[in-house]
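Figure caption, in words: inputs first, then the predicted bound structure.
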Amino acid sequence: MALGGGAWRCGACHWAGHGILQGVTTDREPANTSTPSAGLVVALDGPGSSGKSTVGAEAARRLGYRFCDTGLLYRAVTWLALERGVAPTDVAGLVPLVAEVRLVADARGRLRHVHAGGRDVTAEVREAGVDRAVSDYARVPELRSALVTRQREIAARGGIIMAGRDIGTVILPAAPVKIYLDASAEERAKRRAVQRKTTDTLEEDQILADLRRRDDIDTTRETAPLRTAPDAVTVRTDGNSFEETVAAVVRTIRDAAGRRAAEAQAAGGCRGR
Ligand code: DC
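Bound structure (2'-deoxycytidine-5'-monophosphate present):
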């Protein structure tokens, strides 16, 4: 599919190429970056298909927090790059694509949709072609630095669960709550196969091989590799139901919020004495 320039207008989002999206809330609006909101900043990291996006979004809903899936930024840039034939080695061609990517909020303020090059590509960025290529793009240091400020601006208001690979280690190292969601490659591949509605064993084997390859690139890249932050709470999800994992994440965040409130109260009490 050919993507047009500024003249092309998307019926769903009113995007006019380089303009501002109307009628939808995106991560590029000042209101999304400046007004402080109640709640902590939560870094939620973990490997591909560990459930960060679905678990994080549901935990955010229960807590009344915002949610941001940063993987969508890397996926959307990758999708655009593949559309336009920009290779991961073409840094000069790659970095400007960042300006064409917008995260879009759902009705609950969760940044779970993505527009790129003027259209909603939320479904496309989850397809196998992007899955296979995204780690090769996400390892490019210049692309990563172009996305750092963007992610920090989104988190600045607080009251957010931000999911990714380097949120607790690089993007928000001072986050008061860090959670590392983990599961074996086999379990994650099974979940991905269910998502894709496939029962073909050859395709399942391919999904597992692709996941292992992505894990390898994500954990060994030079810039911001996937690591558990030393102060992160690890939540292992093998054998867990979705509900159990969401409950563990919500509990971890509530406990941290409770501890902070008690500390603040104690500090206030000491000052008052
Ligand atoms: O979480 P995900 O599978 O949607 O992430 C897609 C890719 O983007 C993955 O290969 C790693 C990369 N990524 C990253 O490097 N840093 C992030 N904060 C989020 C994702």
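Confidence is low (pLDDT under 50) at residues 1-22.
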